[in-house]
Each structure stands twice: as structure tokens, then as C-alpha cells.
Amino acid sequence: MARIGFIGLGNMGLPMAQNLIKAGHSVVGLDVTSAQVDKFVAAGGTAAATVKEVASASDVVVTMLPAGAQVRDIYLGKGGVIASANAGTLLIDSSTVDVETARAVSAAAAGRGLAMLDAPVSGGVGGAQAGTLTFMVGGDAAAFEQAKPVLEKMGKTIVHAGGPGNGQAAKICNNMILGVSMIAVSEAFVLAEKLGLDAQKLFDISSKSSGQCWSMTSYCPVPGLVPASPANRDYEAGFTAAMMLKDLKLAQDAAKASGAATPLGADAATLYQRYVDSGEAGRDFSGIIAQVRRDK
Ligand code: NAD
């Protein structure tokens, strides 16, 4: 069984690391938040004090960090993962970061002869706990095959999206669809309300018609229509509006850098920014329907 190092034991990282432990791996972990480390140790993990300690004791290093800045720091810094890993160690970053950071870190790893994958996820905290995450993986095919048995302990759908950075590209494209479709569904229900069309009636019709989409039938922003929706729990996250905004901004940065036209993606980022600025950063992203209602 591969020895695994895990850096970033937050809402996602902790349950992912727990699933690796449950599967029989020995896992050495690190986080700057001591409460998270305590939970990791209680689950059978071994706490490390430095990045170097994690990297030098592991066959595979997995990171699950907030954003690109932390990923660059942990991988590229003095005493970082790339400087400290032994030859043959496989590096997997599952954080959601910009494509440029993913490619820069991967190139630095290659410079030391280390294989690296960007492997962001979808499925949220529930998927991390259940071990049913989707992994979108960028990097070379041999490294992907090597990583698969480890990723399968944490996820159900593991897709090789192409070379370095393509996992991140898939993630931000998917989440741009999600952000835009959640707003579209919200606008439709608010319009229906104003036209005197009952929400249940619109749901019954659209969920079986061409307007059907995940934002409507799995995560409906109107309470009372889909039992598992955060709308039924006062929009308790779930996937926060702040995280959606982060991903929509990454998509906008990538669109600008690559010359792609994404006007609806840009509007979605603006709307989520307004929602977050109204004090709702921690609310589930489907709460955007409140912003749609407020806008005149
Ligand atoms: P989180 O903030 O709960 O976890 C990040 C952890 O990293 C924290 O525990 C923090 O203390 C730790 N950390 C930060 N800097 C560190 C450092 N220098 N060294 C060691 N530890 C450090 O965030 P999360 O919800 O677990 O998300 C992690 C990543 O997964 C993000 O990139 C996010 O966009 C992505 N993601 C999250 C979800 C979700 O639903 N939460 C879904 C898909 C993807």
C-alpha cells in the first residue's frame, strides 16, 4: 500500500484523507489549523510538522488547498513539496486553482523528474465524505494510471482530461455552466412568480422539458420542490457562493487569457460578486435566487 502525504485537511481534504486511511493507506498529514489536524489524528492519521516531513515520507502526495497562492507556496517554496520529495514520488493537486498555476507547478515538478497531476474535484463535502467525488485529471497518461488506485479510494468517476492544467480547465468550464444555469433557473422561477405561474407547475413542466438541467432537478433554488436542495435548509451550504464566485473568476481570467468570449459567464461572475458583497459569502450558491429577486 502506498504511503500517502496529505496537505490541506479542510472541509474537503479531511474526509478525503479519512477515506484513504479507511482503505488501509498510512497517511501523514499537515494543516495550519490545529483543530483539523486533531480530527485527522483521531481518524488514524499521523501529524507532520513541516511540508518537508510530509513529502520525504510519502510515495504519493495529495494537496487540497484553498487557492493558487497556497499551491505555489506549498509546492515551489524552499522546503516545499518539489524540493523535498524523493525520486519517484507522485504529486497530485486536487485544489481548484487557475490553469496557469497548475501548469507552472507541473513544469517545476517535471524539472526535478517528478510526475505531477492536477486533479480537481466536483461533488462537494458530501461526495468527499461518501468517497464518490468526480476527479478531472490533467497530466501524462502514465502518471494518471499510477494515480488511479489512489483516486478511486476517494472518488467514483475518474476522468483523464489531457495534459497538465486540463483538469483545472475542465473544472472551471463545468462550474461556469453550473453558475450560469443556477442563475437561469432562478430567473425563470422569479419570472413565473410574477406571471402568476405556480412554482410546482413550472417544475413539473420544465423538469420534463427542454429547460431541464441539474440546477433545476437536483438542486432547485426554490424550496419545497427537490427534497435534497439547500433551499429547504435556508440555503445552508453545500457549495458556498464565495466558492462559486472564485470559480467564475478563474473562468473569466482563463477566458481573457485565451481570447474566448464568455458574456454569460462574465454576467454570472458580476451577479455572484453582488450576492457575496451583500454579506452572503457563506450561503449556498443556490441562494442567488434572493439576489435575482432583489434586482429590479
Ligand atoms: P477549506 O478552506 O475548508 O480547506 C483548506 C485547508 O487548507 C484549511 O484547513 C486550511 O487550514 C489549509 N491550509 C491553508 N493554507 C495552508 C498551508 N499553507 N499549509 C497547510 N494547510 C493549509 O477548503 P475546502 O472546502 O476543503 O476546499 C479546498 C479546495 O477544494 C479549494 O480549492 C476549493 O475550491 C475546492 N473545492 C471545494 C468544494 C467544496 O464544496 N467545499 C468542492 C469542490 C472543490
Describe the structure.
By secondary structure, this protein is an alpha/beta fold. The chain has two domains: 160 residues, NAD(P)-binding Rossmann-like Domain (Rossmann fold), CATH 3.40.50.720; 126 residues, N-(1-d-carboxylethyl)-l-norvaline Dehydrogenase, domain 2, CATH 1.10.1040. Helices cover 52% and strands 12% of the residues. The protein contains 14 helices and nine strands. It has a six-stranded parallel β-sheet with strand order 3-2-1-4-5-6, sandwiched between helices. The chain has a three-stranded mixed β-sheet with strand order 7-8-9. The longest helix is centred in the middle third of the chain and has 29 residues. It binds nicotinamide-adenine-dinucleotide.
Please supply descriptive tags for the structure shown above.
binds nicotinamide-adenine-dinucleotide; alpha/beta; 52% helix; 296 residues; elongated; N-(1-d-carboxylethyl)-l-norvaline Dehydrogenase, domain 2; Rossmann fold; 3-stranded mixed sheet; 14 helices; single chain
Topology summary:
Elements: E1 4-7, H1 13-22, E2 27-30, H2 34-42, E3 46-47, H3 51-56, E4 60-63, H4 68-76, H5 81-84, E5 90-93, H6 99-111, E6 116-118, E7 121-122, H7 124-130, E8 133-138, H8 141-151, E9 155-162, H9 166-194, H10 199-206, H11 214-217, H12 241-258, H13 263-280, H14 288-294
Parallel strand pairs: 1-2, 1-4, 2-3, 4-5, 5-6, 8-9
Antiparallel strand pairs: 7-8
Helix pairs in contact: 1-7, 4-6, 9-12, 9-13, 9-14, 12-13, 13-14
The chain binds nicotinamide-adenine-dinucleotide.
Nicotinamide-adenine-dinucleotide (NAD) binds next to α4, β7 and α7.
